[in-house]
């Protein structure tokens, strides 16, 4: 199972019921699908298996990742192993607080790979940051956290919620100070580690030109691209 395909853009974050036909969304290149099971990932293995099987049978080139929370204890390890048995290409670790979380998740994935007969290190990690300010306040470099770490995903909406600071200019005339700092820290930490960094789009309804403007600002700020939350956003981004 390859872990070298995660520079494919655009990406799509979607719920399991939406992930069955992501390739129908217009895109110049194959779509990387992130199946969002973060709210019930510990019991979702049966629901994600048909999605992964469908994409494999259709020979879809883009990887499929599962978005989950940090597994804890024996039950968490068992649930993670059940998801690994479904053969995703990797995982998005939401609410990542820093190097320690990445390293802990790496170890748990290694156990799950061994239990399912996979080559050690074959499953990728994308660390999703924003919900825990500790990531941005730490001086630790992330480059050596894990060889399977393939990039960062910045969730500005999660940061805005936890800091009660605007994530965009609708109210304050520009991003709030925590958002500016966190965006810069994301780009700098990822660049230091030689990793791509993506910005997760907001769920707020916007016009296609507004989505494209956000994408252009993200790229200008040093992000590798944006991640759409649904096929409508992906279509809007691909249209121009």
Topology at a glance:
Layout: E1 11-14, E2 32-36, H1 45-57, E3 64-68, H2 73-84, E4 90-93, H3 99-115, E5 124-129, H4 134-137, E6 149-154, H5 156-163, H6 169-172, H7 177-193, E7 197-200, H8 208-220, E8 225-228, H9 231-238
Parallel strand pairs: 1-2, 1-8, 2-3, 3-4, 4-5, 5-6, 6-7, 7-8
Helix pairs in contact: 2-3, 5-7, 8-9
Q: Any overview of this molecule?
A:
- This protein has 240 residues and is α/β, with parallel strands linked by helices.
- 40% of the residues lie in helices and 16% in strands.
- The protein is built from nine helices and eight strands.
- The protein has an eight-stranded parallel β-barrel with strand order 1-2-3-4-5-6-7-8, surrounded by six helices.
- Helix 2 crosses helix 3 (99-115).
- The longest helix is centred in the middle third of the chain and has 17 residues, at 99-115.
Characterize this entry briefly.
By secondary structure, the chain is an alpha/beta fold. It has helices at about 45-55, 75-85, 100-115, 135, 155-165, 170, 175-195, 210-220, 230-240, and strands at about 10-15, 30-35, 65-70, 90-95, 125-130, 150-155, 195-200, 225-230.
Instruction: Outline the low-pLDDT stretches.
Output: 1-9, 19-27
Assembly of the depicted chains = single chain
Tally the beta strands.
8
**Judging from the principal axes of the Cα atoms, what is the shape?**
globular
Question: Alpha-carbon distance between the termini?
Answer: 33 Å
Please work out how many helical segments DSSP would assign: 9
The overall pLDDT, averaged over residues, is 86
Tell me the strand percentage band: 15-25%
Radius of gyration: 17 Å
Q: What pattern of helices and strands is seen along the backbone?
A: EEHEHEHEHEHHHEHEH
What can be said about the biggest beta sheet? 8 strands, parallel, barrel
Structural class: alpha/beta
Helical coverage, percent range = 40-55%
Strand order of the largest sheet: 1-2-3-4-5-6-7-8
């Amino acid at each position: 199972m390859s872990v070298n395909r995660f520079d494919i853009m655009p990406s799509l974050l979607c719920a399991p019921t939406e992930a069955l036909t992501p390739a129908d969304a217009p895109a110049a290149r194959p779509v990387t699908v992130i199946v969002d099971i973060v709210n019930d990932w510990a019991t979702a293995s049966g629901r994600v298996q048909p999605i992964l099987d469908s994409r494999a049978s259709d020979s879809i080139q883009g990887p499929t990742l599962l978005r989950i929370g940090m597994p804890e204890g024996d039950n968490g390890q068992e649930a993670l192993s059940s998801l690994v048995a479904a053969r995703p290409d990797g995982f998005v670790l939401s609410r990542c607080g820093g190097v320690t979380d990445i390293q802990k998740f790496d170890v748990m994935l290694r156990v799950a790979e061994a239990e399912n007969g996979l080559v050690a290190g074959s499953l990728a990690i994308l660390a999703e940051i924003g919900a825990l300010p500790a990531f941005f306040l730490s001086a630790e470099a992330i480059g050596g956290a894990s060889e399977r770490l393939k990039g960062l995903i910045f969730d500005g909406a999660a940061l805005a919620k936890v800091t009660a600071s605007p994530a965009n200019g609708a109210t304050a005339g520009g991003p709030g100070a925590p958002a500016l700092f966190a965006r810069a820290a994301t780009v700098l930490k990822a660049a230091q580690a030689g990793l791509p960094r993506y910005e997760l789009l907001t769920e707020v309804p916007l016009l296609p030109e507004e989505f494209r403007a956000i994408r252009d600002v993200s790229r200008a700020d040093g992000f590798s691209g944006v991640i759409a939350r649904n096929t409508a956003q992906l279509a809007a981004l691909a249209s121009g």
